[in-house]
Design goal:
Layout lengths: L4 H4 L1 H14 L6 H17 L4 H33 L6 H4 L6 H36 L4 H5 L2 H31 L26 H11 L1 H4 L2 E4 L12 E4 L3 H19 L9 H20 L1
Antiparallel strand pairs: 1-2
Helix pairs in contact: 2-4, 2-6, 3-4, 3-6, 6-8
């Protein structure tokens, strides 16, 4: 029911984008800081001479890459379906920017994500020895070996900052060059189709379909569709449903068995208060006998 909120809520969209990039571990934001250090530590394990350490490092790198890729796909989908395209409902079509009391907390969090990502590489090196001295004195010697991990992190952050500065400079130059010139807007080319609607946009399922197809042997997505039989069909329908693997295969069956086992004890709960009092009395009596013996 969303879509098209970028033009109607530009500030919220920008803050959402910063938060999404941060949680995906993209530089120069806070999520990148820890993720990159974990990756470098795992890479050092792969390059070590110990076989078990190398296997563990390769496993960490593979898992980290998979999780990061899925996070990027997830939040690209969330941002695209929410803020891009055309509104899919009347409420989204009449949306407006949030008031400053709602924008301020998001802005503070976005600024904190950016500050930690930019300043973190330089502060970590100085804070780590003091932190280890308080929390784990035995690991103080290991802090010196971590200095070579901070140098690549500082290099990446520096390059990203220079790239952002270049983008800001080009944006300013563009604004100066277009000053005083008429700027118009036109609709996106629609391939000659004159009646596009929001129903032609990507949905959440269609956006995730390539990833769902990649993991189809595990996800087991259920698909149902009505066949199109003539040249001018009145309607067609396609539904896909992807269940939760752990919920469907592990959690739900386990709770079902527990529920079935406990249902056999329902005869105890019959609503007669005098028998409930008897249960309490017998329990107290059993506890007293156990304590005395």
């Amino acid at each position: 029911r969303l879509g098209g909120l970028l033009k109607r809520m530009p500030k919220s969209a920008g803050l959402f984008l910063i938060a999404a990039a941060a949680i995906c571990g993209l530089p120069p934001l806070n999520g990148f800081l820890g993720e990159f250090l974990v990756f470098l530590g795992a890479l050092r394990g792969v390059l070590s001479s110990d076989l078990s350490t190398g296997v563990m490092g390769a496993t960490v790198i593979g898992g980290l890459g998979l999780i990061s890729g899925l996070a990027v796909a997830c939040f690209t989908r969330a941002f695209g379906l929410t803020f891009l395209g055309e509104p899919r409902s009347n409420e989204a079509n009449h949306a407006h920017e949030a008031a400053w009391p709602m924008l301020l907390p998001m802005a503070l969090l976005a600024a904190a994500c950016l500050a930690v990502g930019l300043a973190g590489p330089w502060f970590l090196g100085s804070l780590l020895p003091e932190t280890l001295r308080v929390t784990c004195p035995a690991a103080i010697g290991a802090a010196a070996r971590l200095d070579d991990l901070f140098a690549p992190l500082q290099g990446v952050v520096t390059v990203v900052v220079l790239l952002l500065a270049l983008i800001a400079t080009l944006t300013l130059v563009r604004r100066v060059l277009l000053r005083g010139r008429p700027i118009g807007e036109a609709g996106t080319w629609d391939c000659g189709y004159l009646r596009p609607t929001a129903r032609m946009e990507y949905t959440a399922s269609s956006f995730a379909q390539p990833l769902a197809a990649l993991f189809r042997t595990v996800l087991r997505t259920r698909r149902s569709a009505t066949a199109i039989t003539d040249e001018f069909p009145r309607g067609a329908k396609l539904e896909t449903q992807t269940g939760d693997l752990f919920a469907d295969r592990l959690i739900d069956p386990a709770f079902r068995r527990v529920r079935e086992a406990l249902s056999r004890l329902r005869w105890i709960q019959h609503g007669q208060v005098r028998l409930y009092v008897l249960y309490i009395a017998l329990t107290l009596l059993a506890l007293l006998i156990w304590k005395l013996t």
